[in-house]
UniProtKB/TrEMBL annotation:
Principal cellular location given in the protein's record: membrane
InterPro entries: L-PG_synthase/AglD (IPR022791)
Pfam families in the record: LPG_synthase_TM
Bilayer-crossing regions: 5-24, 40-59, 125-144, 150-170, 245-266, 286-310
Protein name in the entry: Unannotated protein
Length: 321
């Protein structure tokens, strides 16, 4: 109970601070005018890119499941992906959507929870790693061009941490060292879930070709998502090249994982205002870009919501006559 209250308090504090920052920076009337004048062509492109990237995401997940002996229908996995986006709008972060995929898939494949969990978590981890690789490219392209040094060094830190995590999960030498941590995990009663996560991910060490293909698909997905954000900016008159967006995108995806938010509400928009402000974009169009990205995430969840409603109606018992 205490933990829930602390989390609720943290969420309220973070949201209020972010809202206060936004109100301080933007002119609400001007921002509404910018949103009302958004270019529909750019918006359509941005929406298309967000939706179409689900296809390679499903394909890479199917690959990860298949090598662990779990064969599932591509279209059902696509359905699970869209449902996870809908669930993610209700739960605090996108982690809730991952939990939805694990739960639904585990019900279809009893006794396979560990590899299913590993597939989802590895997919998430590779997504973050590839995004940070793209960020490293953006880092090199942005040095000396934009006043975003603080953001660049934050991303550099995450690149190093991601490389370290990869070594921990895939190195056989490190695996032997991890045995010393078992008593600690047991003491805190997290040994079982920690072992399941580790084994679920470490098992993919034996499938380098699959990991290579998954990484290739992830580069395509993350690049598409970053271009979608750029197109949303173009829709509201933000005239920037793609370079700074390759720095913005990875940090945005990390911001969306912050547990003390209501699906990133206000924090996401405040991040857009601050980051784009460092590259010469006014607060109003910067906020509008962030708001459109939020709208895109809602659009992405609509197919899943429709599926949930349809399946709910079909499950309703027929009343007795």
């Amino acid at each position: 109970m205490r933990t829930k209250l602390l989390k609720l308090a943290g969420t309220l504090i973070v949201t209020v601070i972010a809202c206060g920052y936004i109100v301080w920076k933007i002119d609400i009337g001007k921002t509404l005018h910018i949103l009302g004048s958004a270019d529909l062509g750019w918006l359509a492109l941005s929406t298309f890119l967000m939706l179409i990237t689900v296809a390679p995401m499903t394909w890479r997940w199917q690959l990860l499941l298949k090598v662990r002996g779990i064969n599932d229908n591509y279209w059902w996995l696509t359905r699970a992906y869209f449902v996870s986006y809908a669930v993610g709008q209700v739960l605090p972060t996108s982690v809730g959507g991952d939990a939805s995929r694990i739960y639904e898939t585990a019900k279809r494949h009893p006794g396979m929870t560990t590899p299913i969990t590993g597939s989802v978590l590895l997919e998430r981890a590779l997504g973050g790693a590839i995004t940070l690789v793209l960020a490293a490219v953006g880092f090199l392209l942005a040095i000396g061009r934009y006043d975003i040094q603080t953001y660049l060094w934050i991303e550099a830190l995450f690149v190093v941490l991601t490389a370290f995590a990869g070594i921990v999960f895939f190195s056989r030498t490190v695996r032997q060292w991890l045995r010393f941590g078992v008593p600690i995990a047991r003491r805190f009663k997290i040994e079982r879930p920690a072992r399941a996560v580790y084994e679920g991910i470490h098992g993919y060490r034996a499938y380098p070709s699959t990991l290579a293909r998954v990484c290739g698909a992830t580069i395509l997905v993350q690049s598409g998502r970053i271009v979608a954000i750029w197109a949303a900016g173009e829709a509201v008159g933000v005239d920037l090249s793609l370079r700074p967006y390759f720095v913005l995108g990875p940090l945005l995806f990390l911001v969306m994982l912050v547990p003390f938010t209501v699906n990133g509400l206000a924090v996401r928009e405040a991040f857009f205002v601050d980051f784009l402000g460092h590259v010469g974009v006014g607060a109003d169009p910067a906020f509008a870009t962030g708001f459109l990205f939020f709208v895109l995430t809602l659009v992405l969840s609509l197919p899943g919501l429709i599926v949930l409603l349809w399946e709910g109606v079909r499950r309703e018992p027929t009343p007795d006559v």
